[in-house]
Amino acid sequence: MAQRLSHLLEQMLGVRLPLRLRGWDGSEVGPPGAPVVVFRNRLALRRLLWQPNELGLGRAYVAGDIELDGDMYEALRRLDDLLWQQPERAAQRGGILRGGMSGGETVRDLIRLGAVGPAPRPPAEEASLRGNRHSLGRDRRAISHHYDVGNDFYRLVLGESMVYSCAFWRSGDPDGGASDYGLADAQRDKLELICRKLALRPGMRLLDVGCGWGSLAIHAAREHGVSVVGVTLSHEQVEYARKRVAQAGLADRVEIRLQDYRDISDDPFNAISSVGMAEHVGLAQYAQYAALLFRRLRPGGRLLNHQIAALHPTDEPATLPGPLARLRRQPRSFIDAYVFPDGELAPGGATVSLLERAGFEVRDVEALREHYARTLRVWVSNLEANWDEAIRLTTPGRARVWRLYMAGSALSFEAGRIGVNQILAVKADADGRSGMPPTRDWLR
Hints:
The chain has about 450 residues and is of the alpha/beta class. The chain is built from 17 helices and eleven strands. This is Cyclopropane-fatty-acyl-phospholipid synthase.
C-alpha cells in the first residue's frame, strides 16, 4: 500500500517525496532515517488529492488523518520546498480528482485505495467568516476565532507572562540549553524595551492597541507610573486582563476595553503602543489605521508599532493601493484558514511609508526576526510538554493547529521568509520639533 500511495503522491506533486510514508496497513516506503508521514486512513489521501498544498496537508493533520512520526521541525524542513516555497505548482495541477492527473493505472490505484469521492469536509477548527473583509463585525469574529480559545490553554503555551509576541532575548542559550534566563525574563525585557522606546514617564497616558491579556499595560503602569487604556476585540482577553489589573492594584490607572481601534475617540495620548496587532488590520485599511493613530497622539508623542513583516515580496501586480500596489495575493493558506483569518503581512518598507504618509516621522526600526524564532520554539516546547492538558482544555484539532503553525512559523523566521520589526515613530509639533534625543545612546 505504501508504495502505491507514494507513487500517487509523487505523480500529483511532480517530485520525489522527501519523507518516509506509512500506510494505514503499516507498510512503509521512503528515505531511511527520515521523519515518517503516517496515513491513518483513506480520508487522509482524499484530503491531499483535493487540496495538494499546505492547506490540504494542514487539514489532514488537524483532523488526525495524518500523523508525523519523528522530529516536527525536520519534517517541515523537508516539506518546505514542496509545499511552501512553490505553492503555485500545486494550485496549477488542481488535484487528481479535479483532472490534475489521468491514466488507467492511476484511476485503478485511486479506486483500490478508496480515495475516490467528494471533497472531505474541513475540520471544525477551520475558520469560515462571512461579511465584508475587515468590517467591524467580521474583524470581531476573526479575532474571536484565534484568541477566544481559552485563557488556560494560552497560559500553557505562553507561560505566566501571557505575552503573545516575540520576546527580547538579552542572554541565555539560544539552543535551548540550561539557563537561568528564560522566557519570562525575555518577555519582561521586551516590555521594558517598548516602554523605554516610548520614553514613558509618570503622569503620561498610554494607548495600548490590541492589549492582549494586559501584560504591557500592567508593566507600563507599575514600572513607569503611566495611565493606560488598553483595547482588544477578544472577550476572554478582556476578562483575564481586568482580573490581572485588579490583582495588581492598578484599577485606578489601567482601563481595559472591549473596543475596536476604529471606535477610539479619547483625547490624544502621550504615547501609543501597537504590538502584534497591525497584522490584523488588513493592507487596504492600513492607511486608515495609521491616520487614526496619528490623530490620537499628542504633538511630540511617540508610536511603537511592533509588527510581523513579509520579506522578499514578489513583484507581481495586485489590486492594492499606494506602496502596496505590487504585493501579490496568495491562495488561502493554512495560517489564514486556521490561525489568523484575514491577517495580512506587508514588508517593513511599505509599513514605514504608510506611517509617514499619515504624518509620522519614523525615527528607528529594529528587526527582531531571530528573537521570534527562538520564542516560538519555546512555545512549541511548552505545548508539547503539556500536550494532554492542552487537548483537555481545547480539542485535539486545536492543539494540532497550534503545534503546526508555531513550528512552521519558527522555521519561516529562521529562513528569513518573514520578519518582525519594531518601528518607532513620532508626531512632531507644529514647529517640527520631535523631542527625540540627538543620538541613539538612549536605546542601548
